[in-house]
Amino acid sequence: MCYDLLNDYQHIKLRDAQPTAPSIGTTAIIDDETEFDAYVETIVIAEDSSSSVKYELDHYLKEPVIKNTPEFDILNWWKVNGVVYPTLQAIARDVLAIPISTVASESAFSNSGRILSPHRSRLNWTTVEALMCARSWLWAAENNGIFRVAEEIATVLNEMESDDEVELMEGCLGYHFED
């Protein structure tokens, strides 16, 4: 799996590094021999890079493990060692750019977090509503109150004017409410 990821990054790197052919409207003339040489060189580089990527990962894995101390700076380490491991550096750059989440999933759906602002969630409102309803129903089922909750939901649904909202809730419950 690691080799596949490395090869994917290497192909992206090679694709970006390939010279682009001049457009039709330009006056540059490229003879067939020069174009063929460029093509052959691209193939040779691709074959060499495939083996060099494997070597790069093998070499990295053979390195001694660095102790995690308060002074250790992972970003600086990749900056310095990026010359030795350029493909791994690109992967690390993409992975380390992902922000960490400091909100526990329980607190996001707790009573205090029932109203989710756009800053806290990118979920569609119907998805959030379905998740919160499901959570409520599961808690009610644990407390043997599922029928009471279902009756309350039926009352609320009967008061709603939109048939689409009723169908959404019925789909979530897997239960059909009769008028």
UniProtKB/TrEMBL annotation:
Signal peptide (residue range): none
Pfam families: Dimer_Tnp_hAT
Molecular functions per Gene Ontology: protein dimerization activity
Name of the protein in its database record: HAT C-terminal dimerisation domain-containing protein
Domain of life from the UniProt record: Eukaryota
InterPro entries assigned: HATC_C_dom (IPR008906), RNaseH-like_sf (IPR012337)
HAT C-terminal dimerisation domain location: 56-138
PANTHER family (alphabetical): AC9 TRANSPOSASE-RELATED, BED FINGER-RELATED
